[in-house]
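Morning. Coffee machine broken again, so started the prediction first thing and wrote up yesterday's gels while waiting. Chain of 126 residues, entered below exactly as on the submission form.
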Amino acid sequence: MHIGEVAARTELSLRSLRHWEEVGLLQPSGRSDGGFRLYTEDDVEKILVIRRMKPLGFSLDEMRAVMVDLEVLRDPGADEAARAAARARIGAVRADAVERRARLVRQLAMADEFIDLVGDECGSST
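Came back before lunch.
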């Protein structure tokens, strides 16, 4: 797939995909004869993992580390010690993601309360 199709499928901008390549977060699987980026379904799945981490506020370095660990877990040739270490790190990231999500839920509740408060104020003045 070319970058435009990937951008449409993942709801990301071309700029984001190019930036992620520049910072070493994700590399397209290949290039066409003309030098255009080519992505596979596996690349799209990786992009979606990154996209899901982004709203939780993970840094580029944290996202990069997760992607490396996921690669280790997908590699049938990885030794068991490397796989165990990757599983442990992914477990810690998951726990962190749960905490970050809980913070977002609290923020959303506060936003809803504010919207209700402002709505009440608007309704009482008419």
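The radius of gyration is 20 Å. Going to sketch it on the whiteboard this afternoon.
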